[in-house]
Amino acid sequence: MADFEPVLSRNWNIPDSHTLKVYESRGGYQAAKKALAMDPDAIVNIVKESELRGRGGAGFPCGLKWTFLPKDRKETLMCVNGDESEPATFNNRLLIEKDPHQFIEGILISCFATKASTAYVYLRFEYIEAYRIMERAIAEARAAGHLGKNIYGSGFDLEVYCHRGAGAYICGEETGLIESLEGKRGWPRIKPPFPAIEGAFRKPTVVNNVETLCCVPHIVERGAAWFKSIGVPKSYGPKLYCVSGHVNKQVCVELPLGVSTRELIDRHAGGVWKGRKAKGAVPGGISMGLLSADELDTPLDFESLRKPNCLGLGTAAVTVIDDKTSIVDYLYNTCRFFAHESCGQCTPCREGTGWFYKMIKRIRSGGGRIEDLDIMHHMAENLGIIPGTTICGLADGAAWPVKNAIAKFRGEFEDYIRQHQAPKARITALQENIAHGVRADGDTSMPAVDGPPNLIPPGAVVLRSPRPDSA
């Protein structure tokens, strides 16, 4: 750890690090010039040998994904996911704002390797400053010959365009992103065909994350062996970890893959705030689940987080929860988020996320039952792409926090339910009428079938609904 040299964030503290002048003065675009003098397949092999895994959440091997493109393709497109809508994640924003030319160089090399002549950077709409910086950087790179026609005399052409999203979590899923890019409703496609075969505008398409492509110039410059010397087996290279929540200092820090949550909290985030202790932590964005206080020493890499039954590393966005925070409040916020962000295309996700939210809302307001916990856990076990009930993984991301929270904090949930039982509400006259089958439109000419006459007291305010024949 003491010998670790940051590369992704090495320019962040340099004045005007977002400009081409500063980037070129620090060796920028030299890896691109080296790459464009190579055979594209050789670059693919180098990235494949490095075992670079996608930094956007799924952790799929980048080089392997590039080999899925058809050999006989006539045109290739590159889509870069800068939507970054996973809560508490902000590493991609910093990469774009502080060092956009590193990102552009990564795009250039990756497009050359995959023979893509057009790249679309799909940016989160709220990233206004990042968008402005990226647009200026693209213009600078084009003017300097790093983009455009016949780059470096190699005969390779590339244009890069920024496309701003419309604030949808689901557009972080690669086919949802492509649908949105095409101007359609942002919801995932049924697969196959996969994007590598038929992606944006029905052309072979590569979809990668911002941080993933920022690693590529360093792999080309220093080699696959260098990259694999960092991190832990099956999780190689540097990683930008975001730490937020109940800590004294919210940071984004570059470290080798495999550090622990406890190290991030104590060494880099200044400890838990207000002198409190950690009750738990989200290890990589709320869709990854939850670590208890006893699991904070688990290495944050692509494989180790399976042991405490988390979904994975995700975006490596750690959110700390202190011991004064109710686990019910944590799950309420999480379920509310996913219920809002589900695109509604798949019934299990649309209904399941909604019911999660309704049930935890009822528990939080004092109407919970112990059996609700078993119902929610059962729903979570049968929801998502992993059990095969949905098109994309949003439902899995919604289910994992529920499973983890109930399994690891069951006692706290049960105590909350027992201690926060609200008194039964008084039955209203309208509810009494409905229970007896009495119409609530004030019409006394038709008494209820098999029931008492209209029980609505004179002068009462009633709710009127249009009759079916008048709709």
Question: Would you write up a description of this structure?
Answer:
- With 471 residues, this protein is an alpha/beta fold.
- It has four domains: 20-229, Rossmann fold (3-Layer(aba) Sandwich); 232-322, Ubiquitin-like (UB roll) (Roll), CATH 3.10.20.600; 327-419, de novo design (two linked rop proteins); 437-471, no CATH class.
- 38% of the residues lie in helices and 11% in strands.
- The protein contains 17 helices and eleven strands.
- It has helices spanning 20-25, 30-35, 40-50, 62-66, 91-98, 100-114, 128-143, 174-181, 210-222, 224-228, 261-268, 327-341, 347-364, 370-381, 394-408, 410-419, 429-435, and strands at 77-82, 118-123, 159-164, 205-209, 231-232, 235-236, 238-245, 251-256, 278-282, 291-292, 317-322.
- A five-stranded mixed beta sheet has the order 8-7-11-9-10, covered by helices on one side.
- Helix 3 (40-50) crosses helix 6, helix 6 packs across helix 9 (210-222) and helix 13 runs parallel beside helix 15.
- The radius of gyration is 27 Å and the shape is globular.
- The relative contact order is 0.10.
